[in-house]
Amino acid sequence: MLSIKNLTVEADGKEILKDINLDIKDGQKVVLFGPNGSGKSTLFKVIMGLDGYKIKKGKIEINGESVKDKSIDQRVKMGLGYIGQKSVAIKGVTVENLMEQYEFEYDKIKEDIEDLDIDKLLERDINSTLSGGEIKRVEIFTLALLENIHTYLLDELDSGVDIENIEKISKYLKNISQKKSIVITTHTGAILRELDMDIAYVILNGEIVCKGKPEKIWECIRKQGYKNCVNCDIATK
Amino acid sequence: MINLEDFLDNYSNVGMNPYIVLNDNKPLLMETSDEQLQILNIKNPKVEKYLKQYDTQENSFKEYTGYLILLSENSQSSIQTCFLTSQSGFEQNVRNVIVAEEGSKLEVFTGCLSNDHVKSNTHNAITDIFVGKNATLTFNMIHSWGETSRVFPKTKVHVEEGGVFISNYVVWEKVKEIVSNPQVFVEDNGKAVMQSLVYSHKGSKLDIGGRISLEGSESSGEILSSVVSEGGNYKTVTEIVGKGDNSRGHIECNAVLLEKAGAVETVPLLKAQNPSVQLSHEASIGKISKEEIEYLQTKGLNEEEATELIVKGFVNNSVKRMPLSVQEKIESMMAGGKGF
Predict the structure, then answer these.
(1) pTM of the predicted model, to two decimals?
(2) Residues of B with CB below 8 A from A91's CB?
């Protein structure tokens, strides 16, 4: 279980997450809604320990163990799998080069390669000259190389991706994540048509302002925008 | 003293034949003289006679060793050579000439080595390379001198009409000092490509550049330098002079800095002496981006593993145009193997 308690975060002297409380239970599927700049991506980056953020208050725990002072890779070893919104291209490093860094049996990942249709992408440089959909498929695949991941943090998985790729990715995620937790962010809502999520949270200006059933909240946002999320009657605050 | 047989067993491994060694200043062990490929001791009287037709550099050495490699017209061959010093404080002087005659295709794979116990040795070389009309010469050099070695080659290359000269120059292991600035002259429709990959270790002083003079019309030249700096002093002065009609030249230098110490200096010079020439250069020097390291950390790699992989990518990108044999050697060196 991933547990966030009273988390307040600063960047460049400005408070960008305010008193966030969020428990991701084992196997739970969670969606975070919020307009651009609301703090969804920041929350993921802070959970992963990326540079540039200062935790003013609160704590993040994985199965009761604090992630404080843990490096990014240590947090991955603690069970967090993360895909950022922005892809990072690494010239000269192919997906195969990355695969060489892990010990695994090829048979175990053969199916992942087929399901995500990335066989032809393995010899390509990571995230370089790939389409939006190809990048996300490769990114999802890299999570299959990691052992012991129990919680996936997937930031804007459906951003810049066509319907066909969203279907492919969603189908794959459904298969692999039955017993795992997933937290996704979306501002297009496209992926909700393919993935059944248990609960949704809305983040506005760095604060969780609402939680409830994903379909209902999304319907409300779609019709009325985020401005009505505060004190919205469908939410269970 | 290094045992030559052991040496050959350990290092003669790129599979090219024949394989020739210049040990200290001793004469070439054997001469071969088949119809197509001749390898002769530079002091053989036949060599002097043959070279009269060529404009060669002056030989300023008193004591020296060396060879002539001569590939005859329209033939094809490859050869592996090695410069070896086996005594501390020794000054090796090498005078070499390589000729690929008209229409021939020659690949030379050269390594330089000193045994682990050899300290403070110096390697001087004067090399003339002649690439005949429509001939192709690929010259691969992988250094593996010791960290106290000093290396001063003087190389002059002449590329005749339609000829192609490709130099792949790799310095990956520790060396005290190298000054290498080959001069290449290219005639009509000829082409010269000089690529280098250098690892600049702490305590190294490296001056590795070169000059291509595009003499003929439609001639072209490229100088591509890639540097991984771990605190050494690296300088590259590269120059392309466009003289011939429609000649084209490009200089590129990319450096990645792993340490705060040391220096990387790149000085590209482009000189157009004809209004129809087209010359360009680009350069980038910088440390590995935090974003790339963090990205790989999110894939479970620690900071050191991430840095190593990014450097590997930089190297892969730098050597992708080099022959597979060179790429494989570099890969083996990166994995901790001996260079040559």
Answers:
(1) 0.86
(2) 313-314, 317
